[in-house]
Specification:
- The chain contains eleven helices and 13 strands.
- By secondary structure, it is α/β, with parallel strands linked by helices.
- Strand 6 and strand 7 form a beta hairpin.
- Helix 3 packs across helix 5 and helix 5 packs across helix 7.
- 36% of the residues are buried.
Length: 469
């Protein structure tokens, strides 16, 4: 066997190469890195998603609906309760209180706003602020119950919201502001009773009313009343499930409607104070003559002389009984009882005359003024003529003292009213005696006629006059 030797220039063939190994390793590393990057970019699918799709009975929230509700919430705008643009016509039209709104008004009925209602497009009333000095710092807004403004609290029940151009401490001005709520309660409100009251004066928060007025409202609505005290902080506020707003006092109400309201309040007050009728007390034929005196401003200069004049005339009429009282010494129920037995009310001009509606219908009022009022006091001097008419009483005129404290200005100068406003009232013995005699005789004839025509009837304080329907 012959051994063949390789030629000097020929090399042996081999699969191993260091360069090839390096190339292969680099390629593998690159592919591994690319695969890892791809797997990070691709969402991981849950196992068996295609074979067993996940189902649910509750649809996920719609981003569109959430956005709409939030947009409604964000779009609620609070406006100043007192709009200074209308300060020159503060009590006219839509007034400067909640000036962006208009009242619901049927001729002869109260002017009011109800929330929610068709007029408010289903929106409720929201209020913010507790400023007691400037109503422009308090504000109001309207919102849907489902989209209340941020940081507000929904308050349940019926809320009465009153704006009074005067105040709630004076019983006449306070009564003027609350009468329309009684009218709404009696007619449009279906006898609804408020859970709370919110009081404003020119848009400024008020947290109390006179004790007399509060007692009357508690009697009328058959229970204690709550006046909101506004414990608000920061940007918070309240939204009310139901609210009735009054800002025109009794303006717009017909005489007949006002008489219904005063009848209801009279009856409710008598029941509340447990007043017995004259018939129950055996005084059916008597005539009650009451001198309702004042102390201080607009009091009689010689009270004793005035009492003696009316006392002399009273004793001349059979069944006449004279009572002298001071309004500041009597509780609410004592005033109700006094008025229920009064047929003729003799009193100086002043808030105490507001009690006249607590007398029986057709009772008489005699009013007295200090010097200067006729020329300078304006229409406000006739308020007790008005309430006499609205409550079914007979205003028998007024006596105006021709003498009084001197004014340093001409007597028709408006600055003289500051002198005359709180002046004392004198007396004219001859005029007072003739006037008292005339009124007493008229009342006596009326009482005789009433006894003949109403014999056997039931007193209004225990009849349907006290019911709301």
């Amino acid at each position: 066997m012959t051994n063949t030797k390789p030629k000097p220039n020929q090399r042996a063939t081999s699969l191993y190469s260091p360069k090839l190994s390096i190339y292969l390793i680099a390629t593998c590393v690159t592919l591994f890195i690319l695969f890892q990057i791809k797997s990070l970019q691709t969402p991981t699918q849950p196992p068996c998603t295609l074979l067993h799709p996940i189902t649910t009975n509750q649809a996920p929230p719609s981003p569109l609906s959430l956005s709409a509700a939030e947009k409604l919430r964000q779009s609620v705008t609070f406006l100043p309760l007192k709009d200074l643009r209308y300060s020159s016509t503060a009590q006219q039209g839509h007034t400067w209180f909640m000036s962006s709104t208009y009242d619901t008004h049927v001729p002869g009925e109260v002017q009011y706003q109800k929330f929610p209602s068709h007029a408010s497009r289903g929106k409720i009333l929201c209020l913010r602020g507790n400023d007691t000095h400037d109503g422009a710092w308090n504000s109001y807004a309207f919102a849907y119950t489902e989209s209340l403004p941020i940081n507000t609290t929904l308050v349940k029940g019926l809320t009465f919201v009153s704006n009074n151009h005067y105040n709630y401490d004076n019983i006449w001005h306070g009564l003027s502001a609350t009468v329309p709520f009684v009218g709404w309660h009696l007619r449009d409100g279906g006898c609804a009773v408020p859970s709370r009251w919110i009081l404003y004066h020119w848009g400024e928060v008020r947290t109390k009313m006179s004790l007399w007025l509060r007692s009357l409202m508690e009697a009328t609505f058959d229970g204690p009343i709550e006046i909101e005290r506004w414990d608000l902080n920061g940007e918070g506020g309240y939204c009310f499930e139901e609210a009735v707003v009054m800002r025109h006092n009794e303006g717009g109400m017909s005489r007949e409607r006002r008489m219904e309201v005063y009848d209801l309040m009279r009856c409710k007050a008598r029941v509340h104070c447990k007043v017995r009728t004259n018939e129950e007390r055996g005084l059916g034929g008597r005539i009650g003559l009451t001198l309702f005196m004042r102390s201080g401003p607009r009091s009689f200069r010689n009270e004793t002389a005035v009492i003696e004049i009316f006392e002399r005339e009273c004793v001349k009429v059979g069944g006449c009984r004279l009572t002298v009282a001071h309004s500041n010494n009597l509780t609410f129920c004592e005033q109700v009882k006094l008025m229920s037995s009064t047929d003729i009310l003799v009193s100086p001009h002043g808030a105490q005359l507001t009690n006249m509606f607590l007398m029986d219908r057709n009772s008489s009022v005699m009013e007295f003024f200090p010097k200067g009022w006729l020329k300078l006091a304006g229409v406000g001097q006739y308020v007790y003529h008005w309430i006499a008419s609205w409550s079914g009483m007979n205003h028998r005129g007024a006596w105006r003292d021709p003498t009084g404290d001197p004014c340093p200005y001409p007597e028709d100068d408006r600055w003289c009213m500051s002198v005359y406003k709180s002046g004392k009232i004198g007396h004219n013995e001859t005029y007072f005696a003739e006037w008292a005699r005339s009124v007493l005789n008229e009342v006596k004839l009326r009482k005789i006629d009433e006894q003949a025509t109403t014999k056997g009837t039931t007193d209004s304080s225990t009849s349907s006059a006290c019911s709301c329907s």
